[in-house]
């Protein structure tokens, strides 16, 4: 997408004309109705879709835009992706006359150069009209598709040189005209997708958008155009007002952070994301100037829409959670995303893997920067895996199957102030549900051998990061495996003196003479019986590990989150007895002496900053 089009689609949009007056309670009731509509449409999609990534993993999101393209409502979903649909819908709005929009129409778009996130994320949307025949609302659904018709199954091509190798780019396409499905358009999409489940997925997305349009139409009939417009205007203004009030309470100043990706898929090292968060009264500016712009970089290009979404998801997590999530968030923040960098690339750059990295580094850097003034609200909304191990094959009928490696794991669950990392996923994954290990075994020729948390992989801190897990899998048939590894040199940051999470790791053909470590990107043929072992990184720690309560460290050792050696080396806690005999006890005098020694050593030779 050109810089001019990016800026136009992202620009602040006017309030709806013709709105009447509305009281705050009524406006909030209508906001709640919007959220209910989003929940109902996302639930319908989840229950009707054919693929596990939608119907089991819940990788689907619903939102509502107003007639000016402003985000008016959303429901539960994956936070970063909930803020992406408006840009694709705005491109559709700009072309509504040429595309002959009308009641009963349904559209789809996924093109990163025309408002999309990355090609696998389809946005399907349907307009709702007011009594004067103007677009008042748009019901939108966004969901990840398992394939995009590119040169590699799944759409993730570590060696793609442009977007055309990643799959079919759709700026906008009408799927339903006046309530009647366009078979030619739908058949074209189905034909350009390898997965037999896709036809069910796109049909479910169409049905969900139609349901959203119907429910919103009933709401408009019940409340009237003017009250709906007034509620939207009020709620967006109220979100901006409340966000700015929070910012005004922060300490003025500039807060910077630098984070890195180990390498791009071609091996170019230390891909850099820089963020400068400036607080001046009630104005927050997030400036990403200084982020990498090397033209030779490969497959670390994040789309402009994704960059905005990931930044806002992190910022929304750092203010009062009762603030409604809508266009007011964007109105309250000045996002500076320089054109030509990895965060707003030139047209036609491959962008599928950029939705992992550097997208996550944007949120990570914002969190690290603002943790200086907002320790109580700092939790990185990110995951640091390059991409899961995807294994691909075909059944006897020639139909492709793909195990995308998104089954249950523990990774990236960081500590926050006062709370150890917990659960199996970072908070930024929202309502995503990782599939059970048995689910993949029932559908694909694989056996999941183990899912075990790994001792000493959670970042040490006054509050400890959750350990990552080692996921081992056996392939029962010859398959192709695709992987891209990062976060071995630059794992997830710790905060305010906490240790970073542990590095990721990945090994193929485990237990054989051919065993090897995956160090960057590859596409490999694996024989039947091959074992792959993926070590997920742990969450980052929060504040100095030497401040952790020694009794809590003892409990960590008993739970095998931390080893006795790790307790001594990172926490300065001395234990007597053995874990095997379960007779461990704290040696408090020795612990006090060791912590004093470690404090002196670290003061003389300070460790690298946890923000990498």
Descriptive overview:
This protein is of the alpha+beta class and 612 residues long. It has three domains: 3-240, no CATH class; 384-543, no CATH class; 550-604, no CATH class. The chain is 30% helix and 21% strand. The chain contains 15 helices and 22 strands. The chain has helices at 3-10, 24-48, 52-55, 79-82, 85-94, 183-191, 198-223, 225-248, 304-316, 327-332, 359-370, 437-443, 550-558, 564-571, 588-604; strands spanning 60-66, 71-74, 106-109, 121-129, 135-144, 173-177, 180-181, 253-263, 269-280, 283-287, 333-336, 387-394, 400-403, 446-453, 469-475, 479-484, 505-508, 516-517, 521-526, 531-535, 575-576, 585-586. The strands form five sheets. A seven-stranded antiparallel sheet has the order 2-1-5-4-3-6-7, with helices on both faces. The chain has a five-stranded antiparallel sheet with strand order 14-15-20-17-18, with helices on one face. It has a four-stranded mixed sheet with strand order 8-9-10-11. The chain is globular, with a radius of gyration of 25 Å.
Specify the number of helices: 15
Which stretches of 5+ consecutive residues score pLDDT under 50? Answer: none
Principal-axis shape: globular
Computed structural class: alpha+beta
Distance between the termini: 31 Å
Portion in strands: 15-25%
- Compute the CA-based radius of gyration: 25 Å
Range of helix content: 25-40%
Q: Care to count the β-strands?
A: 22
Mean pLDDT score, rounded? 93
The largest sheet has its strands arranged as: 2-1-5-4-3-6-7
Q: How many distinct domains?
A: 3
What does the largest sheet look like?
7 strands, antiparallel
């Amino acid at each position: 997408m050109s810089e001019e089009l990016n800026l136009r689609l992202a620009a602040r949009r006017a309030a709806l004309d013709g709105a009447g007056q509305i009281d705050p309670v009524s406006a909030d009731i209508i906001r709640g109705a919007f959220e209910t509509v989003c929940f109902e449409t996302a639930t319908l999609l989840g229950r009707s879709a054919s693929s596990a990534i939608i119907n089991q993993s819940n990788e689907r999101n619903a939102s509502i835009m107003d007639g000016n393209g402003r985000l008016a409502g959303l429901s539960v979903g994956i936070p970063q992706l909930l803020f992406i649909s408006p840009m694709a819908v705005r491109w559709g709005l700009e072309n509504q006359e040429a595309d002959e929009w009308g009641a009963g129409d349904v559209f789809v778009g996924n093109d990163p150069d025309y408002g999309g996130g990355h090609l696998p994320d389809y946005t399907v949307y349907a307009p709702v009209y007011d009594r004067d025949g103007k677009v008042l609302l748009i019901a939108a659904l966004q969901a990840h598709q398992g394939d995009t018709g590119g040169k590699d199954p799944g759409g993730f091509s570590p060696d793609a040189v442009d977007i055309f190798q990643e799959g079919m780019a759709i700026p906008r396409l009408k799927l339903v005209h006046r309530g009647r499905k366009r078979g030619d358009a739908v058949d074209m999409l189905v034909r350009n997708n390898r997965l037999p489940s896709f036809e069910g997925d796109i049909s479910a997305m169409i049905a969900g958008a139609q349901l959203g349009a119907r429910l919103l139409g009933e709401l408009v009939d019940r409340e009237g155009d003017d009250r709906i417009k007034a509620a939207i205007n009020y709620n967006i203004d109220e979100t901006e007002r409340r966000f700015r009030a929070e910012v005004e309470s922060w300490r003025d100043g500039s807060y910077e952070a630098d984070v890195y990706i180990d390498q791009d898929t071609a091996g170019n090292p230390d891909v850099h994301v820089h963020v400068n968060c400036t607080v001046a009264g009630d104005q927050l500016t997030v400036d990403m100037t200084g982020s990498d712009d090397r033209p030779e970089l490969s497959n670390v290009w994040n789309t402009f829409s994704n960059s905005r979404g990931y930044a806002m998801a992190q910022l929304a997590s750092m203010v009062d959670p009762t603030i409604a999530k809508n266009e007011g968030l964007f109105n309250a923040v000045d996002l500076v995303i320089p054109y030509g960098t990895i965060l707003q690339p030139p047209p036609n750059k491959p962008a599928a893997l950029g939705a992992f990295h550097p997208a996550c580094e944007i949120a990570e850097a914002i969190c690290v920067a603002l943790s200086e003034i907002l320790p109580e609200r700092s939790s990185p909304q990110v995951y640091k895996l390059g991409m899961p191990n995807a294994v691909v094959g075909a059944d006897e009928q020639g139909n492709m199957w793909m195990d995308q490696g998104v089954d249950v794991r523990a990774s990236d669950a960081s500590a926050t102030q006062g709370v150890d990392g917990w659960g199996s996923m970072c908070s930024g994954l929202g309502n995503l549900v990782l599939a059970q290990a048995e689910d993949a075994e029932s559908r694909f020729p694989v056996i999941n051998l183990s899912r075990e948390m790994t001792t000493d992989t959670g970042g040490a801190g006054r509050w400890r990061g959750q350990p990552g897990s080692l996921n081992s899998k056996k392939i029962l048939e010859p398959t192709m495996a695709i992987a891209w590894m990062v976060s071995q040199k630059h794992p997830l940051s710790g905060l305010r003196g906490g240790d970073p999470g542990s590095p990721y790791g990945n090994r193929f053909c485990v237990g054989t003479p051919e065993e090897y470590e995956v160090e960057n990107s590859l596409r490999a043929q694996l024989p039947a019986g091959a074992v792959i072992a993926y070590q997920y990184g742990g969450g980052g720690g929060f504040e100095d590990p030497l401040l952790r309560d020694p009794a809590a460290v003892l409990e960590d050792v008993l739970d095998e989150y931390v080893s006795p050696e790790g307790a001594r080396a990172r926490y300065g806690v001395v234990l007597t007895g053995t874990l095997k005999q379960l007779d461990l006890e704290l040696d408090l005098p020795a612990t006090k002496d060791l912590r004093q020694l470690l404090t002196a050593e670290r003061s003389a030779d300070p460790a690298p900053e946890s923000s990498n």
